[in-house]
Amino acid sequence: MWGTPALDQSYDWIAISATFLDGVYIGDAFAPFREIDPSDRAGYSILLYDARRPEVRRAVELTQARLR
Questions:
Q1: CA 15 vs CA 2, 20, 61: distances in Å
Q2: Is the pTM of this model over 0.70?
Q3: Within 13 Å, how many C-alpha atoms sit on residue 16's CB side?
Q4: What is the pLDDT of residues 23-39, one digit of tens each?
């Protein structure tokens, strides 16, 4: 599915557009990430999350479940 995050052991970072985080295109699937401070940013609108953080891994799981 377009926009569906995939996380396995090979990913170190998750990048999410602020537009997706706000639920503009595919509803509120990325809402779990709004509770987490990003690890960094790429420019103004891309939020970066360190995939080794347990709360980020949980947010990915919740987001994947919402998009199924």
A1: 14, 10, 15
A2: yes
A3: 31
A4: 888 778 899 999 999 99
